[in-house]
Amino acid sequence: MSIFSNTTALPTEPEAETQARVAHVRKALSPYQADLIKLSDYIHELAELPGEEYNSARALTEYLSARGFTVETGIADLPTAFRAVYEQGTGGTSFGFLAEYDALEKIGHGCGHHMQGPSVISAALALKDLASDTPIKIVIYGTPAEEAFGGKIVMQEKGYFTDIDVALMMHAADTTSVDVKCMAMENYIVTFHGKASHAAMTPEEGRSAFDAVLLSFNGIEFLREHVKEDTRIHYTVRDAGGAPNVVPDTAVAEYTLRSYSTDYLESIVTRFKNILKGAALMTDTTFTLKRDLPFKAKIPCHTLNDLVMRQAVASGAPQIAPPREKTGSTDFGNVMYEVPGTCIRCAFVDPGVAAHSTEYVAAGTTPRGHEALVSGSVILGAACLAMLDHPEYHEHLRQPERYLEQDWHPEQGQTNPFLHLMMHLSIDEQCSIDQPPGVRALLAALAERHGSRHTAQHEAMDGMAEMLWRAQREGRFPDPNVYLNILRDKLGEAEQFNLQRLDEIQ
Known about the structure:
Helices cover 44% and strands 15% of the residues.
């Protein structure tokens, strides 16, 4: 079980707290911003095709190496894949940032992949600088050929991505949003084998491989009437077999099958293969299959999606939109079977402008493109900071069934993580509704004094504990005024604080 579940809701957080975190990240990444925009424009100009992103990968890895990351290149037997790691301390949360940098043939960077590496790198650098002495691990994966064979799938099969607790991506888009779906995809190149003969003189001796292709297409058309609405099946002729006066002994077709359900797609593949068998049987031919690596449908992590969208709203990102219900296929879906993840899509063109278009290419190096790159950095960096609270509990939350029945003994220095986090949630709720009245301002003042919302909440926990202890000792209901006075006393210990100032903060 991941530390991020599909059913766990985020605690309510005052908008001002989120905005303060976003501002903190924006300031931290500002020293890197100009360089990374230049790097993005450079990758855009290169426009290297899938699997051939040598210069793009080199530029990204050289930048990371110069800033304290340990870099491995050519991982997973992919020359343009890489892994860059920064770690301080041990046992900390491992944040994974994934970047694509392949372009489209004949178009260039019509999907905005040139932005991804620079955007996640600046988010990672901001996180690195702001983590202070917190144990933390940052892993940046360079993942080639998303537009072709799916580099992430190859890397996953070679054992990568198991070293991260969360997978994060940025992607250019026409709105600022996240995905809740992507389509599982199976792709097959099928070669039918028949028998050649002269089409005019001895057609009876031939067995047409191309007839088998055409019959398979007809079978798919009939299949389309009897599948779920979200199923997509496409096909094309790769090789028709040659001259029209020859019965072709070989013909090649390519088929793509998609569904928003990985399991359902498997059942469609079975029916598709039966069509191939039928086409071969009717034409007295045979066939061979070449299967590309399968793309899986996403397992959405709603908690992470909500987290990044909170940061997006607080950052003032343009063209905020609801989660996308319809998307194509991506190898990131496969990664999300290994580790929870999310991808923030950052608007840099007008709503409705299609990806894989010349409009995307043209906008990629404009101020709007640069702003989208920075926006992704700010959003992901702020989301990571929000995740850093209590990394010592992550192991317990990954496998809660192992710890739910455990006794937690204070004399042994143990804290019940479930109770502790519940108290954080309770304090978040207090601030959201300002109950008891005045608690929001007091906690804001404590956060300002300490420079940490988290530390302020720990002081509030002390106050709640004392309020409950006094109530138990005196045999009466807890008095919220006791709680508020304790918070006022904590402020008074360090400095004089007047009611006017509290009102200003509130």
